[in-house]
């Protein structure tokens, strides 16, 4: 293969409230934060990810849960390059069966293209693509949501490329270095962590995020290459992808149904009937997705409330009614649970974040 693009069911196609991402990044984030004497467990628990849930192999988290934890972890550690640290702490085994498939690939290029093809199974929170260009073999990544909080957005891009460089070095040689790195976000105050990690020219404020991999490294044989193991692992991954698409479709259909019905919320029995299913079967399908109907409703209401808070002309009473809350007090309790702030404080933060003077972009 010479070109690998993001799959049709890439992370960017999901609504931000869908719990569809394996929480690999959050697990490593918690480990790295611990080295700063920062305990993320209370924060994880607040977004529904307590210690018991985080050890579940079936756990999936949403982009909203992930970005909330990331943003606050960066603030609490005070490390503006936390994404680089988290990426550098990883190993291919963190990616489960996909990691083993990549290790069994024939060349580094085939390993990368395998990762791109099955990226929805890796816990990736960016959207990957790879292809040969004039400059060399180019690995690009984009954000699933351009409106993502700038702090979380920079973290995710840093983590993405840091993990790739770290894993390539673990597999084909510690001397690996990209030919060039380009980042769409503004240059940080201190560039040295980027120069030390990537060991190549690094450019910021670029048109997009990309890593140029020298030809000899792209075509380097993988030390653990095994065509039989590789083929068998792809069979397993194809089966898992088919199951994941079914789960993702279910979550998106439910979210859309709830969003279109607000301020009213369809009952669970009504949703089961719409899917020609029993309540028990629908609950079992949602459990397989790592979520519940109540969590989906909460996520959709949260998204709607945040959209409405961006409209200064609306009162809190208007927002509570349109988002399906019983009253303003219920809205206040929900916003406090989601953000640790009042609705008015959150409104100020959202409006300031989106003001034209905000120079952060990715």
Automatic annotation (TrEMBL):
The keyword Transcription is assigned to this record: yes
Q: Which domain of life is it from?
A: Bacteria
- Which Gene Ontology terms cover its molecular function? DNA-binding transcription factor activity; transcription cis-regulatory region binding
Q: Name one GO cellular component term.
A: cytosol
Q: Which residues form the HTH araC/xylS-type domain?
A: 248-349
Q: Which UniProt keywords apply?
A: DNA-binding, Transcription, Transcription regulation
Nucleotide-binding as a keyword of this entry, yes or no, is: no
Q: Output the PROSITE patterns linked to this UniProt entry.
A: HTH_ARAC_FAMILY_2
What protein name does the entry list? AraC family transcriptional regulator
Species this chain originates from: Streptomyces sp. R39
